[in-house]
Write a structure and sequence with these properties.
By secondary structure, the chain is an all-alpha fold. Helix content is 49%, strand content 0%. It has helices spanning 5-16, 22-29, 33-43, 46-56. It is globular, with a radius of gyration of 14 Å. The N and C termini lie far apart (43 Å). The model has no long low-confidence stretch (mean pLDDT 82). This is TIGR03643 family protein. InterPro entries: CHP03643 (IPR019882).
């Protein structure tokens, strides 16, 4: 699968987000956890990859099956859809 730079950027952003599970990345872009790890390794500096990997490893929110609070849909900020003056 050929990903354009904007897709790669979005995948990296989703991977850094604590509450975005790998399953959501798989559903959106067709990349499983191992493929996301490879993409991160290829596109981040080594130290950034190591920091991300430590952060994501074992984090319950990155794995839908480990979540204690059940399946959560897409998150929206509390003021995301409010009209601004």
């Amino acid at each position: 699968m050929k990903l354009d730079p904007s897709d790669i950027s979005r995948i990296i952003e989703m991977a850094w987000e604590d509450r975005t599970p790998f399953d959501a990345i798989d559903a959106t872009y067709g990349l499983n956890q191992n493929q996301v790890e490879d993409l991160m390794r290829d596109n981040l500096k080594k130290t950034s990859y190591v920091v991300w990997r430590k952060r994501a490893q074992g984090r319950k929110t990155k794995h839908v099956g480990l979540r204690e609070f059940g399946k959560v849909g897409r998150h929206h900020s509390y003021d995301q859809h409010k009209h601004r003056k």
